[in-house]
Design a protein that fits this description.
The structure is a homodimer. Chain A has about 700 residues and is of the alpha+beta class. The first copy, chain A, is built from 27 helices and 14 strands. The first copy, chain A, starts with a helix and ends with a helix. Strand 6 of chain A pairs parallel with strand 14 of chain B.
Chain lengths: ~700, ~700
Amino acid sequence: MADAAVRPKKPATNKRTPAGGAPTAAHSAAETADARIDVDAVTDLLLGTWADTRREAREMIKDPAFWRVDGMPMAEHRERVLSQLHLLVQHGGSQRAFPKEYGGLDDNGANLAGFMELVLADPSLQIKSGVQWGLFGSAVYQLGTEKHHAEWLPGIIDLTIPGAFAMTETGHGSDVAAIGTTATYDPETEEFVIHTPFRGAWKDYLGNAALHGKAATVFAQLITGGVNYGVHCFFVPLRDDEGNFLPGIGGEDDGVKGGLNGIDNGRLHFDQVRVPRFNLLDRYGQVAADGSYTSDIDSPGRRFFTMLGALVQGRVSLDGAATTGTALALYIALTYANQRRQFDSGAGTDEIVLLDYGKHQRRLLPLLAQNYAQFFSNDELLKKFDDVFSGRGDTPEAREDLETLAAALKPLSTWNALSTIQEAREACGGSGFLAENRMVGLHQDLDVYVTFEGDNNVLLQLVGKRLLSDYAKQFKGKDAAALARYAVGHTAGKVFHGAGLRQLGQAVTDLGSTARSVELGLRADQQQELLTERVQQMVADVAGALRPASKLSPGEAAKVFNLHQAELIEAARAHGELLQWEAFTDGLDRVEDAGTRQVLTWLRDLFGLHLIEKHLAWYLIHGRLSTQRAAAVSRYIDRLTARLRPHAQDLVDAYGFAPEHVRAPIASGAEQARQDEARDYYAALHASGDAPVSEKSLKKR
Amino acid sequence: MADAAVRPKKPATNKRTPAGGAPTAAHSAAETADARIDVDAVTDLLLGTWADTRREAREMIKDPAFWRVDGMPMAEHRERVLSQLHLLVQHGGSQRAFPKEYGGLDDNGANLAGFMELVLADPSLQIKSGVQWGLFGSAVYQLGTEKHHAEWLPGIIDLTIPGAFAMTETGHGSDVAAIGTTATYDPETEEFVIHTPFRGAWKDYLGNAALHGKAATVFAQLITGGVNYGVHCFFVPLRDDEGNFLPGIGGEDDGVKGGLNGIDNGRLHFDQVRVPRFNLLDRYGQVAADGSYTSDIDSPGRRFFTMLGALVQGRVSLDGAATTGTALALYIALTYANQRRQFDSGAGTDEIVLLDYGKHQRRLLPLLAQNYAQFFSNDELLKKFDDVFSGRGDTPEAREDLETLAAALKPLSTWNALSTIQEAREACGGSGFLAENRMVGLHQDLDVYVTFEGDNNVLLQLVGKRLLSDYAKQFKGKDAAALARYAVGHTAGKVFHGAGLRQLGQAVTDLGSTARSVELGLRADQQQELLTERVQQMVADVAGALRPASKLSPGEAAKVFNLHQAELIEAARAHGELLQWEAFTDGLDRVEDAGTRQVLTWLRDLFGLHLIEKHLAWYLIHGRLSTQRAAAVSRYIDRLTARLRPHAQDLVDAYGFAPEHVRAPIASGAEQARQDEARDYYAALHASGDAPVSEKSLKKR
């Protein structure tokens, strides 16, 4: 089956009528004259700034040794993924992020771009790599100093030290500041004593903890001289060369999970485990031999967030991997929908190709538009990340912007991944439920992306708080006209690039005015106005609602905040959606080919209107759209999906996936062959004169 | 772990303050005086008409032999589930639906009620039982005649004949009428020749086909005398006693699936396989020895739908199983949310219990309300089913109503299952992703419920067409005032009971009038008006849009229909939601205890407002709600969720699950014990005087 599934298909070219009989040809004379996209150029656009690295990674994972094997028992799957990590090392896949003196390439953007693509091979491979090099390795690199790099980075890069990233505890997930594990300094022996004082303080859900980890970067409350200096990170050896836990260390296997079963997640506990003072990763806080504590960052809160911020790459990486995984599901479902036929129209014609159904277009094409937007916003995020981590643009403000941006985008792309993959799987019916067609496996593996590396709701709440605090700053001693400036201050130009923002064409107006014809649809500037105003208004509303809280006791203030928690999260989501929309729009500016630009503009419009439709009640309640105009939104979406339908295959071909990445029999052309065979059979039967007549036709006589 | 997971918890009683420290106690003095539900009485209410059978089934599956084992390799899981089916036979679980002369109990409602509960043990067990007795066995019973019953039912009931239900083909899922398999009568030998003429005609996704099936009920186009009489069902032996395919029969294993891997789904193909004339299940169509065809039902279309309708029980059963599976996920997530703490409020207090967060209430409690509604509507569906299949109320109209009702409810409950289980899993963070906590397994297994036994969108389209045709009938030669009558003609009273419908209190009015205070909220009659009017208006709108199509060619008419396909499906969904709401409301009438009635009324209101909020844009665009009133809907939901919060544990306790049904460590009380241990540790540390001071407090000095 695998062989059939990966057999080469037509190369992705810009032919008007693709080979292989795929029904992407124009449906009417008018459409034939329509624009078509330049598929290869769009692939370049989607692969973005680090396209070369992505292509390199995609080439590497054409090797079946990297592929997920459905139904493989957990124990075997875990060993397979470990061996894949060694293969990655051989291919140089683990070096990109690390400094040159340890064999690295010091290329942060490329590093994440390369890792994201591994999701196409096996998400367990992507995440286990992320544990080893993105979390464990990064903790040593980003939180440690040169002495630590020299000691451990070579072994981390070449995987002689597989490691766990021991931050999360059973009792504390996203609230890292409250973890219970302690690291108490003993000046007598110049050691830290690592200890988990109760069951809730056990480290949990850690990749590499159940089996393979030889060491861990353990986050613990640093206590010295009777003072708790807050969460710091320590390098703690876990197992001896035979794989046995070292004295004082124990653990449990997390067992079977909903997905990612190629990773050996587990729990760790520490009973007064002593590590040398050397093992404190002390870039942001140092303990001298006598136990005295020093740090360049005076504020404990800012120090904590600086340390956590150094690990932002996980979220950047998940945003990209979720986007690529979603693209794969869309490729499979739309390719199948372009070949599969079901039900005749009642007009005695052939059975209808699924994608010709209005409902089928409606359920899949807006998700395709959304996924395109995510490719553009992820590339912006990646550029921002590279800018900060390369040191070129490394300021505290830029770091804070990067963290907010990652916290805004990762929730949206990971949730969208689950809903899109699910819709794609349902759109393929029973065949979508077979593991061989990939979508159920993608859903299972990507499920946890929405709650790890920061629970999505917690991340959006962080973004919301940032929006609120910026809002408050803006108004400190200023007049009400600052509101408009505030709004544009949060567009993509500002957030992605820190300056040079796009000015709105005009002030807020009722877009429902009859002066503008509904038939013109909702143009780009109107989409932007609507999306921007929504963020602005929602933040202003929450800020207004919370204002009385400043005069209350902390307990009462918390209650008021709690009443508006859901709204604040919604505001943050609206902010993320705006960023995605603007990234897509900025991407359009880089398109030269007129046909491509036309089709992608429709797709961007579909994304914008899809967002507006999703929040239509809000626009109506807040008087931003008249009912007449609101009703037009859905009709315009219908028109756009119909217009985009002939381009659907081109648009998913532009993802640039090779058969070795897709591997789903239903998207291999097998369905087209079955349809052709069935139709040939009936044609031949008809021609032979042996075809039975239908009872119905008999009754009519 | 399993032992801890199933350790007995407090019995579900109606105590004001439950034992075990679960924080369901009232939060304020006012709340203490509030109503509380009578948990046992609510359990009776939810278990419905066949409560005794459900309790019997739940008692049986307390035996660990029935439980799903996470991570079990597919081959082993398949054998385990087969052995569970034999266990079921020993417990008499397979007899209820069948006639007394073959050892059955002739009790259709009880039969389905019992099977639904199996989802708590292992959904693979529920579905494989459904394949054997609900589909394969039912086909023989419902489509065959006495001679077939005598020949095969005993072996089907006692599982000496495990069988597959061979309807679906690779090339045709929900469009059964178009299947390619043929059964051509040969008068020479008095045999039918079963043949799959091309790959797309292979039977696919069939439980029992890959391994265990000794026979199959095969659906094929019946051809005799050169005439195709449409789809009929044939009993076809598949394998010999050694498990080898009989001559002419072949197949493939469907392999690993997204879930339900305890079932051996597979493909079957037939190469001119001959079966005796006897093997035509001929209740609705007979072929004489000479090949002449007879049927009591003259219309080929009506005959086809009658045969398919005889198999409606699968959909009824899925509606119930999805509802029960959803309840389990809600039990787990809400119990955990009532014990788990995360983040302090910033006011120096204890960390906050998850369910005290506004967002957490908002994400889970409306889904709880929805699930309650489904219990009530499923019981109505089950009663209707029992009425028809017992023969008490078996008229063509009642059958058609039953099929429409099942087609309306199954999509909603199965989709709700997936979205609710997913939300529940996310609400439990990382622990929700562990297989031991059940939710990921439930999602994986129930995933395919949304596309099998009729794809949900296809089913809703059927419902939509029924609504349209009823609408057309209503207006034939009548005045416009019939519109209002049409609307009430589709309320639950009519649909569930065929008569005696609830009259709307008053005519359609603008509910946004200032005369009614927003503060009064949206009362029951207003909820009903809004939900009912929406169905009416949507159907009327689609009917209006399709009216011109009657004058077009079939091809052009199909195009017009296609433009409105998505809207028609939405109208059908609105209809199903109304039915659920009305079933819940009818259920309230049966509640005597005032406290219970109060709390359940809030819950029903939450469900109603949740639906209205979901469709708020529609209500605004169509002038059914003023913007002021629309804005109040969300605020009222916030108030309701806060009001229901203290009752959440009681409401999920009322599902009546025993620890052997739940089996999730996080809902076993282990989390409460961890929280208590951590707080005791910190209290003792504080009391000892050895607690480190925080750096922050040091800086303040």
